[in-house]
């Protein structure tokens, strides 16, 4: 089998991936309650396209007449990346938020503002999700499978609001819930879960 590694083919693949990633933002516009998901998706797109740094670094000083080519290029690249990040952010907001941020020219300033607006709510949602997970108890008569789906749902909800829960911690959490169930069915489920990597 011969693989086409030509620059033209590589550019086509890059544009396909770029289009797929940007569609994630279009389908999940920022409304407020979904801030954590929106931010995560935005950072994925900006990281792929190498523009994420404008959210972390200030704009370089305007090059002087005798500035080196490297200084001029760094400035031009930042301006270009900021404009792209700005467009992505504005295009992936609902119309109300777009109106509120029309005067913002710096992508970093937009991020700071939406974090001030919705970041605290995301923290509250994350705390609520973790609390629901910790207080989750199996109701009498509820099948093990159904109870585990609820637990996995709480794990996913906590992550969607910014909780960092690695795969090992997820497995340990589910294992503990299964052990608490204390039935033969739970032991069989435990064996299945610990014999493969997490699927959630």
Q: Your description of this structure?
A:
- This protein is mainly α and 200 residues long.
- Helices cover 68% and strands 0% of the residues.
- The protein has 8 helices and no strands.
- It has helices at residues 7-27, 35-48, 69-91, 95-100, 107-134, 144-160, 167-181, 184-194.
- Helix 1 runs antiparallel to helix 2, helix 3 crosses helix 5 (107-134) and helix 5 runs antiparallel to helix 6.
- The chain starts with 6 loop residues before the first helix and ends in a 6-residue tail after the last helix.
- Residues 1-8 and 192-200 have low confidence and may be disordered.
Keywords for this structure?
single chain, 200 residues, mainly alpha, 8 helices, elongated
What layout of secondary structure does this protein have?
Blueprint (H helix, E strand, L loop, with lengths): L6 H21 L7 H14 L20 H23 L3 H6 L6 H28 L9 H17 L6 H15 L2 H11 L6
Write a short abstract of this structure.
With 200 residues, the chain is an all-alpha fold. 68% of the residues lie in helices and 0% in strands.
The overall pLDDT, averaged over residues, is 76
Number of E-state strands: 0
Q: CA-to-CA gap between the ends? A: 35 Å
| Strand content bin | under 5%
Class from helix and strand fractions: mainly alpha
Gyration radius, in Å: 23 Å
Morphology: elongated
The number of distinct helices, counting runs of at least 4 residues, comes to 8
Largest sheet: none
Q: Could you name the ranges where pLDDT drops below 50 across 5 or more consecutive residues? A: 1-8, 192-200
Order of helices and strands: HHHHHHHH
